[in-house]
Amino acid sequence: MATITKKVCLLGDFAVGKTSLVRRFVYSIFEDRYLATIGVRVSRKVLHLPDAKSNDETTLTLMLWDIAGSDVFTRMRASYLRGAGGALLVCDLTRPETLLNLREYLAVLRDLNMQIPLVLAANKCDLVDQIRLSTAELADFATPFSAPYYLTSAKDNIAVDAAFIHLGRLMLDWYT
């Protein structure tokens, strides 16, 4: 049984739900009030994933780095991303500009020559009447980066675990 630890960076604008996704995934909780991240918050989640190659199980520890939105990220980007094994790109389905702004985060990854597995979490799918992004737009964004995408809701716990676990599996395939 292999034991692996990987750093995962959450990338996205303010108030897209990065912290809420992490709190739902790691602690199975959600809070309605907005909790602005100041600096960097690191959380840990251990996954036990079957290894298709060896019919064994891999223990994958995800170190989830949640940083404040774009202004802080711009100042800290190299140190924040250093050592990342994967990234969860997060946009807000009710604010189309948050998807477009992910291109800036991806440009930073390219500038740092980081080729890491990516998953797109299009968050707040529970706000059905307010959604302003289509699945076609999400697919158009994610396809060039070979990134699967998930319609997530930290509030209603929709596809949160699936998005993180898929990223974990991609990292295992990438690094083993």
Distance between the termini: 13 Å
For the sheet with most strands, the description reads:
6 strands, mixed
Beta-strand content bin: 25-35%
Give me the strand/helix succession: EHEEHEHEHEH
Plain-language structure description:
The structure is a single chain. The protein is of the alpha/beta class and 176 residues long. It has a single domain (2-175), classed as P-loop containing nucleotide triphosphate hydrolases (Rossmann fold, 3-Layer(aba) Sandwich), CATH 3.40.50.300. Helix content is 35%, strand content 30%. The protein has five helices and six strands. It has helices at 18-27, 70-81, 97-111, 135-142, 160-175; strands at residues 2-11, 40-51, 56-67, 84-92, 118-123, 149-152. It has a six-stranded mixed sheet with strand order 2-3-1-4-5-6, sandwiched between helices. The longest helix is centred in the last third of the chain and has 16 residues, at 160-175. The chain is globular, with a radius of gyration of 15 Å. The protein starts with a strand and ends with a helix.
What does this entry show, briefly?
By secondary structure, this protein is of the alpha/beta class.
